[in-house]
């Protein structure tokens, strides 16, 4: 791999990856649970307030964070950046060690044009093992599919109705 000797990346919290251009942040059930706990809201309230259903690669619909009209992530704010930084989705926390960004040195260097932390002078050197762990976490993300979520919701409602 081109990164056998590591790669330089230091997030400077510029928020360029969170703002001003369209993007999809897909949520897994563990992401959703962490975010609900962080904001102290129910799953239903979080989904209603912060999420939308979008078309996925397999032509199903999956849960994704909303964006504002200017393409800022719904969780980003001007006062603190990501309002859920310590609880952010795995997709966000593994950036920029996404599989497609690690396909080649040319791809990695191309991504550096959009992220000042990639190849930053004096930046942190991530080892091959750390990069592979981040990549594996990214690859393991299983977004919440709408049909499965609705079935789960119906089951929860049925269970709560049986407890009365």
Query: Could you say which structural class the secondary elements and strand pairing correspond to?
Result: alpha+beta
**Kindly state the mean pLDDT as a whole number?**
94
Helix content: 25-40%
Major beta-sheet overview: 2 strands, antiparallel
Oligomer: single chain
Number of separate helices? 6
Q: What integer value in Å does the Rg equal? A: 18 Å
Compute the separation of the termini in Å: 58 Å
Beta-strand proportion: 5-15%
Strand order of the largest sheet: 1-6
**Count of DSSP strands:** 6
Features:
single chain; 164 residues; alpha+beta; two-stranded antiparallel ribbon; 6 strands
Quickly describe the structure:
The protein has helices at 29-39, 43-50, 90-93, 105-112, 128-139, 146-162, and strands at residues 7-8, 51-55, 61-65, 76-77, 81-82, 125-126. The protein is of the alpha+beta class and 164 residues long.
What does this structure look like?
This protein has 164 residues and is α+β, with helices and mostly antiparallel strands. It is 37% helix and 11% strand. The protein contains six helices and six strands, in the order βααββββααβαα. Strands 1-6 form a two-stranded antiparallel ribbon. It has a two-stranded antiparallel sheet with strand order 2-3. Strands 4-5 form a two-stranded antiparallel sheet. A hairpin with a 3-residue loop joins strand 4 and strand 5. The protein is globular and about 60 Å long.
